[in-house]
Amino acid sequence: MKIVRRVGATPRERGSVTGQSCPDIFELSDGRFAVIGTEATAELDSELPPDAARADYERIVVITRETLVRAKADIPDA
Is residue 17 helix, strand or coil? Predict the structure, then answer.
């Protein structure tokens, strides 16, 4: 598994002063996506709707709205 490309704008393009430590989205060589975000499992786990579940090895991460909105154009439809 490898990172194929960034999806959306770079952290610097989104206003990060250092351009290094911000939420990010990457497309992987196997078609999945990797997300860098703020870990919020403890805070949000109990807020999941009844039809949502999280495995023990999964974590809930938060990214900024701008990160996702600016990635929208780069996310494939299929």
Answer: coil
pLDDT digits (tens, 9 = 90+) for 27-49: 999 999 999 999 999 999 999 99
- Whether 28 and 4 have beta carbons less than 8 Å apart is answered as yes
Structure tokens at 19: 């351009």
- Kindly report each contact of residues 57-66 with a partner whose C-beta sits within 8 Å and lies 24 or more positions away, as own/partner: 61/35, 61/36, 61/37, 62/23, 62/37, 62/38, 63/23, 63/25, 63/35, 63/36, 63/37, 63/38, 64/14, 64/22, 64/23, 66/14
Q: How far apart are CA 74 and CA 27, in angstroms?
A: 10
pTM above 0.85, yes or no: no
Q: How many of the other CB atoms lie within 10 Å of CB of 55?
A: 6
